[in-house]
């Protein structure tokens, strides 16, 4: 259940960014409250990173309105930059420097007063668990340790809001889980976390999610809300012989809206599981495919996202 927040940290209305005739972000509107972990979920090229760049003052919006930490995204980009932390996909670290030297460098960039620099550096090293790596050259660190160091450098100046753009891309699942533990710790201290991701399971860690597709925000809510309020269809798990061949057979059924591989089986989206069940069983049996299991299940975040995207594409095609 999402934590109740009231103070607004980020607010945008009709935010739009065009590159010539291409609309990268199309009239996006939402709010993020103080201390909230807000996720932007979407595939590569959907507009996530472009939105973050506008919110962090790196890129000017074409139109619309927005504030970050109380500052206007159109006119106060430099003030925004001083009041946020930003961690990009590529970890903006200097690989020839040691862990400590990277932290010292960012302390200078953020103009942290000399009298508290050592204290802040020690806090970052302890927070990120880098005590045994403080004198190591950054180039030799694993992806997980670089990730922790990059987060530490991003929050070194104690910003009220941090933006994390695909922060766990390319790191192993265990490092990803430990990284999220650090995010939770920051959120508990009142830091607002805005994170983009294309990992469906990772989206479950957020208090709320915005689902973005082709530059449009197609749904927003907590993971629970998205699975219940926004997912109108039923989802069925089908375990059968030759699932790849089964997709083509099942997609031809009137009762099946979508069929997709999921693990070693299939997830079927249907308007009515009771009607679809017997039809699925009969179609697979007629094709000579062994059926191990057919049952309704709770939708995953991937099911929700795919269903909403398919629905939006159908509407666009009809229009």
General description of the model:
The chain has helices at residues 48-55, 77-82, 99-109, 114-127, 143-154, 173-188, 200-203, 223-228, 243-251, 273-286, 301-318, and strands at 8-19, 22-33, 37-41, 63-68, 71-72, 84-87, 161-165, 192-197, 208-213, 216-221, 234-240, 258-262, 265-270, 291-297. The mean pLDDT is 90. The protein has eleven helices and 14 strands. The chain is globular. By secondary structure, the protein is an alpha/beta fold. The longest helix is centred in the last third of the chain and has 18 residues, at 301-318. It has a six-stranded mixed beta sheet with strand order 6-7-8-3-9-10, sandwiched between helices. Helix 3 crosses helix 4 (114-127) and helix 3 (99-109) packs parallel to helix 5 (143-154).
**CATH level 1 name of the largest domain:** Alpha Beta
CATH topology of the largest domain: the name is Rossmann fold
The CATH superfamily of the largest domain is known as P-loop containing nucleotide triphosphate hydrolases
The total count of strands amounts to 14
Structural class: alpha/beta
């Amino acid at each position: 259940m999402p934590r109740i927040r009231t103070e607004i940290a980020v607010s945008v209305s009709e935010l739009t960014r065009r590159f010539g005739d291409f609309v990268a972000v199309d009239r996006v509107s939402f709010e993020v409250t103080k201390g909230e972990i807000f996720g932007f979920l979407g595939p590569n090229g959907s507009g996530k990173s472009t939105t973050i760049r506008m919110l962090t003052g790196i890129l000017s919006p074409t139109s619309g309105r927005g504030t970050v930490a109380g500052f206007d995204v159109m006119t106060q980009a430099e003030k925004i930059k001083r009041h946020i932390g930003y961690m990009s996909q590529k970890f903006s670290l200097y690989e020839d420097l040691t862990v400590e030297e990277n932290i010292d460098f960012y302390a200078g960039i953020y103009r942290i007063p000399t009298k508290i620099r050592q204290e802040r550096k020690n806090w970052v090293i302890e927070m990120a668990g880098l005590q045994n790596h403080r004198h190591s050259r950054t180039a030799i660190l694993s992806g997980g340790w670089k990730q922790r160091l990059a987060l530490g450098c991003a929050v070194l100046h104690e910003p009220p809001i941090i933006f994390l753009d695909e922060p766990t891309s390319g790191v192993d699942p265990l490092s990803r889980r430990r990284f999220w533990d650090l995010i939770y710790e920051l959120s508990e201290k009142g830091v607002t976390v805005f994170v983009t991701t294309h990992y469906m399971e990772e989206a479950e860690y957020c208090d709320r999610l915005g689902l973005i597709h082709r530059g449009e925000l197609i749904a927003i809510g907590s993971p629970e809300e998205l699975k219940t309020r926004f997912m109108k269809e039923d989802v069925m798990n089908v375990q059968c012989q030759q699932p790849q061949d089964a997709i083509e057979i099942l997609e031809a059924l009137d009762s099946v809206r979508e069929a997709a591989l999921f693990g070693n089986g299939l997830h079927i989206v249907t308007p009515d599981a009771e009607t679809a069940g017997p039809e699925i069983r009969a179609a697979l049996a007629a094709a000579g495919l062994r059926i191990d299991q057919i049952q309704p299940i709770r939708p995953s975040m991937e099911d929700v996202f795919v269903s909403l995207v398919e629905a939006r594409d159908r509407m666009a095609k009809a229009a």
